């Protein structure tokens, strides 16, 4: 038989929140020479930069980072925090990041910017994530992103943290608002029923 009074229930809330964001631009000049110097599996790196509360660098493989990515440009975002740093920076970091090719200022092109994004977990200060096949070499060379043997990549980073909070005892009206009350009258139902 359904209860005639609303049950007392405590509620926990788990939320993922963006705690900080940052951006970095990497301009690659002399692309053809860099492509000749860095064969498949070989990369060049940006300088270290601070963004979203951490230190990072961008790794670019102009001929792909591995054999099955040959013919592509591979882009990775490497976490480069100091290993001896204590506190939050030393632990696991959950991040969302986006790489986007940037049009040269003098070009007004009809197609949208080329971009890829992902959400990932950096388990340690020297870990990296990215895109082995960010864009094909032909794709880059046949678009308006490459001008005067240069192209630019923008990196947007958001660090995400999760938190768990125990709310105070909630009433039936709060439970209904949270979608936690059931309207059925079946006493076999295991959910909380509206009074």
Automatic annotation (TrEMBL):
<feature type="domain" description="MATH">
    <location>
        <begin position="21"/>
        <end position="157"/>
    </location>
</feature>
<dbReference type="InterPro" id="IPR002083">
    <property type="entry name" value="MATH/TRAF_dom"/>
</dbReference>
<dbReference type="GO" id="GO:0016567">
    <property type="term" value="P:protein ubiquitination"/>
</dbReference>
<dbReference type="InterPro" id="IPR045005">
    <property type="entry name" value="BPM1-6"/>
</dbReference>
<protein>
    <recommendedName>
        <fullName>MATH domain-containing protein</fullName>
    </recommendedName>
</protein>
<dbReference type="InterPro" id="IPR008974">
    <property type="entry name" value="TRAF-like"/>
</dbReference>
<dbReference type="Pfam" id="PF22486">
    <property type="entry name" value="MATH_2"/>
</dbReference>
């Amino acid at each position: 038989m359904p209860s005639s009074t609303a049950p007392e229930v405590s509620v926990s809330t788990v939320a993922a929140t963006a705690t900080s964001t940052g951006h970095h631009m990497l301009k690659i000049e002399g692309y053809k020479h860099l492509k000749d110097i860095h064969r498949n599996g070989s990369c060049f790196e940006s300088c270290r930069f601070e963004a979203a509360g951490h230190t990072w660098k961008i790794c670019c493989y102009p001929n792909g980072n591995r054999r099955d990515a040959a013919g592509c440009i591979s882009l990775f975002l490497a976490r480069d925090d100091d290993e001896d740093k204590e506190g939050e920076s030393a632990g696991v970091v959950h991040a969302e990041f986006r790489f986007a090719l940037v049009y040269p200022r003098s070009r007004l092109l009809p197609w949208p910017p080329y971009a890829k994004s992902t959400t990932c977990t950096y388990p340690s200060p020297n870990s990296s994530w990215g895109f082995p096949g960010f864009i094909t070499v032909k794709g880059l060379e046949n678009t308006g992103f490459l001008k005067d043997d240069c192209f630019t990549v923008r990196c947007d980073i958001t660090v995400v943290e999760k938190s768990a909070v125990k709310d105070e005892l909630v009433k039936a009206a709060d439970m209904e608002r949270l979608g936690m009350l059931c309207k059925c009258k079946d006493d076999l139902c295991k959910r909380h029923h509206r009074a």
